[in-house]
Design a protein that fits this description.
- The complex is a heterodimer of chains A (78) and B (241).
- Chain A is 73% helix and 0% strand.
- By secondary structure, chain A is mainly α.
- Chain A is elongated, with a radius of gyration of 17 Å.
- With 241 residues, chain B is mostly helical.
- In chain B, 71% of the residues lie in helices and 4% in strands.
- Chain B contains six helices and four strands.
- The longest helix of chain B has 48 residues.
- The chains are: A mainly alpha (78), B mainly alpha (241).
- Chains A and B meet through helix 1 and helix 2 of A and helix 2, helix 5 and helix 6 of B.
């Protein structure tokens, strides 16, 4: 099996996670806001807030990812 | 030119309709059987002659099991070893589905969002059940990151709720999008080669080969990422921060 500790591989897997994380978090924030809006009849205001909260959540996930140690180049003892 | 996305359409081979549900056997179902058979065959070949000095296929199986064991121990701890069989099954099913899908003429099961979404939802539901079983209602404190000052709570709790809901969605979308995109690029490049003919067709062909190699790497990486994140999510539920 290919070496999972290979820096190129780790870099690719790190990069592959970032984009999806941002986009999906924003969309999920908007979707939750939309559902709340339909429920409470306040369209479109909670959705607008939801987009920003979703984007914030996405950035937070990436920040956590970048500081949690599973980034490329970090040597962890397994 | 044929639509590059036509390849992903499922055609029922044996139509089955039960109680209003479409349970037809289509290419994806057949391919899943093939994947299950291939994984079983791989491990059967690995353990058929158990030797102290392992054969190539046996050491391959041992290496990957050791790697996954390290992953589970690191992210979930000793308690997490209960989920070790689940994690191994998940990893090998996704890996073989990705790799076998790259053989021309087969179908990539993981390019169906229903398949990846089901995996992601199952992983996430297990993590919720485990979290509430281990920590009871205290599990809700997963929504409050450690060290959050009180005045930030009204902001942090919605953010954490969104990032929790986003977890299964990212898992599903990442695998599905990578597989679908990769195969679409391969189809487009290959059709360009056919369209280009002998004069210019070699250029898209070279790209097809290059992207194909990249896709093999992506198949491994996406299986790794899905498994790693599954262990991280389950580990979060067990350890709670």
């Amino acid at each position: 099996m290919a070496d999972p500790q290979d820096p190129f591989r780790q870099g690719l897997s790190f990069a592959a996670r970032i984009g999806v994380e941002l986009v999906v978090s924003t969309v999920v924030g908007a979707a939750l806001g939309y559902l709340l809006d339909t429920w409470l009849g306040t369209r479109p205001w909670i959705m607008v807030v939801g987009v920003f909260i979703g984007a914030a959540a996405g950035f937070r996930s990436i920040y956590q990812m970048a500081t949690s140690g599973d980034r490329p180049g970090d040597k962890k003892e397994r | 030119m044929e639509n590059p996305l036509d390849h992903f359409i499922l055609h029922p081979l044996i139509p089955i309709h039960l109680f209003g549900f479409d349970l037809s056997i289509n290419q994806a179902v057949v391919m899943m059987w093939v994947v299950v058979a291939a994984v079983s065959l791989f491990f059967w070949a690995a353990v058929s002659q158990r030797r102290l000095v392992p054969s190539k296929i046996q050491s391959l199986a041992e290496m990957s099991i050791e790697f996954l064991r390290g992953l589970v121990m690191e992210n979930m701890g000793e308690q997490g070893m209960r989920f070790f069989p689940f994690i191994v099954t998940l990893f090998f099913f996704i890996l073989f589905a990705n790799l076998l899908g790259l053989i021309p003429g087969t179908y990539t099961v993981t390019s169906q969002i229903m398949v990846t979404a089901l995996f992601a939802i199952v992983v996430y539901l297990i993590s919720l059940v485990v979290g509430f079983m281990v920590h009871g209602l205290h599990f809700f404190s997963i929504l409050v990151p450690p060290g959050t000052p009180g005045w930030l709570l009204p902001l942090m709790i919605p953010i954490e709720v969104v990032s929790q809901v986003a977890r299964p969605v990212t898992l599903a979308v990442r695998l599905f999008a990578n597989m679908t995109a990769g195969h679409t690029i391969l189809i487009v490049l290959f059709s360009l080669m056919l369209a280009g003919g002998a004069l210019i067709g070699w250029l898209p062909f070279a790209f097809t080969v290059a992207v194909y190699i990249l896709e093999v790497i992506v198949a491994f990486i996406q299986a790794f990422i899905f498994t790693i994140l599954a262990t991280v999510y389950l580990g979060d539920a067990i350890k709670l921060h």
